Amino acid sequence: MDRHTPLPAAIALSGLRKRFAAGGTLALDDVTLSVAPGEIFGIVGRSGAGKSTLIRCVNLLERPDAGAVQVLGQDMLALDEAALRAARRRIGMVFQHFNLHTRRTVAENVAFPLEIAGIPRAAQREKLARILPLVGLEAKRDAYPAQLSGGQKQRVGIARALASDPEILLCDEATSALDPETTQEILALIRDLRGRLDLTVLLITHEMGVVKAICDRVAVMEAGRVIEHGRVFEVFTQPAHPTTRRFVAEVIGHSVPPSTLARLPAPRAGEVRRLVQVVFAGPASTRAVVSEASRDFGIDINIVSGRVDEIAGEPFGVMALAAYGAPERLEAAFAWMRSLGLTLTEIEP
Ligand SMILES: Nc1ncnc2c1ncn2[C@@H]1O[C@H](COP(=O)(O)OP(=O)(O)OP(=O)(O)O)[C@@H](O)[C@H]1O
């Protein structure tokens, strides 16, 4: 648990291990993380990293071989069947492929878990009248899934997850089947619902853009392990692990196109050229940094690209620089820039 997490956690996983086949690789290898109440927590990783296995351990769709699963103060692994069913009603789940009944209308899909739980018809109707407007589907209550767009289908999936008034929402690649615009709409809806319904959200995704759009904190997984976690702003502006850097680069960019590189002047005799990405957050003024570095260290700096972006309302800038000069001068200039709190990463051309 890191110092940003207030206690008690809504979800606390510790030392989770899972191996599907004897002698096979560990799908989960000693995973420990905790999600604070009201937080949107993202888990990002490539295919096979263990994200689905991890999220399914929260509601015990998957049982870990070892470790502890605490949800809303309950030790999930100690519950009997009836208590587990009750605990699962406090945990809604949204799926990538919506998992809708094609022969049921929107209203019937949303009411399905209520029907299973034996909730009387009148109470079901009352619940539908409350939930459908929350997801913007009142006008579609009698439509069948085939008559809906992907975004509308996912709204049904979300409404169904909300039917049992959960305190936790698990989202398993909830936007991966959607186009970019619809993805943003669904992410905005999830963020809005978090605020209105006091939800805690744990989501898994392979897209860092999803994390950037709505998460407060993120854990990066690779080969069954959490390799880095922290506040999204810090992970984006100061990624520590090479895999995290690659994920972050997908969103904020760091590579210089070969055509741009080809147009850069070659270094003069006795000098070298180094390409670096500089990320600055907070009040650091880049123009001053660039001109000061160039003046005080006797180097030349060519700004190859630059832009300002925003994560969770906090602005940050990212620039690609080509710096020319004697190797030791460049090194000293970079060290000075780092001492100002800028994050410098060498760009592989
Ligand atoms: N039911 C299963 N039986 C056997 N192996 C499994 C099963 N589920 C997952 N695995 C294996 O566990 C590892 C982690 O898979 P998992 O699905 O959790 O990863 P993921 O990060 O969610 O990837 P994806 O996005 O592709 O689902 C993989 O090696 C996968 O092949």
From TrEMBL:
Entry superkingdom: Bacteria
Keywords: Amino-acid transport, ATP-binding, Cell membrane, Membrane, Nucleotide-binding, Translocase, Transport
Name by which UniProt lists this protein: Methionine ABC transporter ATP-binding protein
Keyword Nucleotide-binding appears in the UniProt entry: yes
Stretches assigned to coiled coil: none
InterPro entries: AAA+_ATPase, ABC_transporter-like_ATP-bd, ABC_transporter-like_CS, MetN_ABC, MetN_ABC_transporter-like, NIL_domain
Domain ABC transporter per the UniProt entry, residue ranges: 11-248
Keyword ATP-binding: yes
Pfam families: ABC_tran, NIL
GO molecular-function terms, A-Z: ATP binding
